[in-house]
Structures are given as C-alpha cells and as structure tokens.
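Hi U.,

Before I forget, here's the chain from the pilot set. I'm dumping it here mostly so it's searchable later in email.
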Amino acid sequence: MQVLGIAGPSDAGKTTLVERLTARLSERGAVATVKHLRTEPTVDTDGKDTARHREAGAAVTYGITDDEEWFATGRKRGLRETLDDLARDYDYGLVEGYSAAPIPTVALAGRDHDGQTVATAPEADALDVDALVDAIDQLEPYESLGSLVAAVKRSPKAAYAGAIATFTGRVRRLEDSNDDPTEYLEFEKYEGVADERLATIREELEARNGVQAVRLHHRTGVVESGDDIVFVVVLAGHREEAFETVEDGINRLKDEVPLFKKEVTVEETFWSHERPER
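Structure:
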C-alpha cells in the first residue's frame, strides 16, 4: 500500500486535498483514508446503532447494513495498527492530520512533520495533483505481515501450496536486565542496491523445488521499541520447505542486504557498524 500523510492547519485545505487525491487514486486502485480526530467521533447519539454496546463496555463495535455498508468504533488503536490492517486490502492510504507520524507527508502552510517530505505548498489549491499522484506511486510501499501474507495467497501457484510460514523481527527493548532500554532503531538502506539484492534473494528462493511464492520486507526510518522491523513470508507445498526457506530468507537478508542501523537507548545513540565490540 502506498501511504501519504497530509499535514497542515485547519484552514489550509487538508480535507480538500484528500478529496481530490481520493478521486484520482481511486481510478488506479482501492483507497482508504484515515483522519486524526481531536474529539470523540460522532456516529450516533440516540442509541440506534452500537451506542448501547459501547456504553456496556464493548472494546470495539461494528455496525453492518444489509447492503454491506459498515462502520466501527473502539479504543486503544493507533495509526500503526490501522495502517497494518489496511495494507492487506488497499492500494493507497491517505492520512490526514498526523504530523507526528513518520510517514511520507505533504506539508501545507509550513507545518512541521516527522516524515519524509513529498511536497510543500501554502495551501492545497497550490499543488499539482497530477504530479502528486505520480509521486505517491514512487514511494516505498507500506507493508505489514498481513499484507505480505495476502500477497502470497494471491499467487497463481497458490493452488499447489499447503503451507505458509512467516518470520517477524521486532525491536527488542532489552538484551538483558542490565541493558539500557532501547527507545527506537533507525534504519537506512543503500538505495537501489538494497532493493536489487532483496529481489535477487526472493527470485532464488522462489526457484526452489516446492516453493511457490516469497515476500521479504525490511522497514526503514524510525522503528519504535516493540514495533515490527522485518518480515519473511513463504508459500510452499509443504511445511518442511516453508520453514527451511523462511530461515534461509531471514539469514540471507541480514547477511547480504546493505542496511545501516542506528540504535537510540535512554543513555546513548550509535550506529551499529561503528560501535566497537564490548
């Protein structure tokens, strides 16, 4: 899924830009949008939908109509979890109002933000939407374990597969009880070379007997403590070749793909390849 954030003050036209981009991107694929709300969402105030369920203490509620229209409400859900779910089924995700999110972003009216800058403008009407749509398609896709599993299930060879094996690597907060806690890791990749190497590893693993499809993905940028970093997903005829290929896939990714890791703990910051052995 291609993800783009739109950040700016309320009078800069954020929602207008989301509307214009949604209209254009929906010609190319399925679009999902996420909006940052500073107040409780208003779904229904007189108890005709799921309000009574929520009042009774339900953590999440869904309302589904006869024609499959739906809505959902709940608690304890952040942007990362939302994007992880959306990535399985949507080609584009537009995120309005999350200037603190480390995602590619259009900044309106000089709004500061924490992600890669895709475009800037004093207001939404000053942007070339055609150029912006093309820029979105050039961004690195947002992937999750769910989106990669969904991708291998769509393989033309899926009928020959009886197993899916996965590996997920995450940011470990502590190596042991005496360690300084890790706050986040930051990854940079050798542009072009890293993608080429990933493609070669995938091609060689998919050439194995009994392996139908492989997906490998390593996140770049800032990855917070406890969040997922890297995924390997294998669709295979049987569990033996699935497990073996997952193990080989993550080992080769770590050994052969040029990625650089900065670790930030509560006490220090260092690039892993520059830190002397202790």
